[in-house]
TrEMBL record, chain A:
It comes from Nocardia tengchongensis. The lineage of its organism: Bacteria, Bacillati, Actinomycetota, Actinomycetes, Mycobacteriales. This is Uncharacterized protein. The chain crosses the membrane at residues 32-48, 54-76, 97-116, 128-148. The keyword Transmembrane applies. Keywords: Membrane, Transmembrane, Transmembrane helix.
From TrEMBL, chain B:
Residues 4-83 form the HTH arsR-type domain. Gene3D superfamilies: Winged helix-like DNA-binding domain superfamily/Winged helix DNA-binding domain (1.10.10.10). Residues 4-101 form the HTH marR-type domain. This is Transcriptional regulator. The lineage of its organism: Bacteria, Bacillati, Actinomycetota, Actinomycetes, Mycobacteriales. SMART domains: HTH_ARSR, HTH_MARR. It comes from Nocardia tengchongensis.
Amino acid sequence: MDGITPDQARAALDAAGQARRQMAREVGLPRGYWWGMACGWLVLGVLGDLGPGWLVAAATLAFGAGHATLASRLLGGRHRTGGVQLSADVAGRRTPLVVIGMLVALVGVTVVAAIALDADGAGHPGSWSALLVAAVIGFGGPELLRVLRRWVRA
Amino acid sequence: MSTARFDELIHPSTRLTLVATLAAADWAEFAFLKDRLGLSDSALSKQLATLEEAGYVSTERRLEGSRRKVRARLTAAGRAAFDGHIAALRDIVAGATAPGEPGV
């Protein structure tokens, strides 16, 4: 067909596939999103140690609602930069599930760390465990998401 | 399923990468494409103009603040041509890997 050898066709397919994969790497959430979440995490941890129960419950609800609103706009992963909007097909439908799974796991880590710190006699275990997880989210959120997406091929 | 149709216009490597990039996006800005493909302004303009002339790409100029930005997207015809071209390339490769079968 048109004098194209199978090797040339294979190379062209590889180039097209590479372009698509590079675009798929654009999926992600802005760094500010992760730092915002880290701050919220820390506030909830501190409130858990120092605040009254009603305030903790209200703050948790506010955090959940705020996150859900922001996430619904961003979790499609199609707005990492202003320079491109990925097609829904490339952005994938599993990325929001990966983020939700990641958050659930981080809540688990926060609780386990708080229990361990409490058992060790540390003061304000909720704050310290929240600080630990907030640092992970703030500094490594995008990288964590990238690795998890690769694992589940999202 | 798209009909396999080798497309001479899309096949050159730079243009294929450009079309594959656009096929993965709803739209992409000129600066993004230029950076992604490592092309100069004039080279990218030329490629986009060729594709636009063929009806495969549409571009729109938008004023953002004081800056004028160019946004490109693949048209339905461009997407069909790209899908057909990829299908044709797959047929060529499949024809080579299955020697007992007739080639395309």
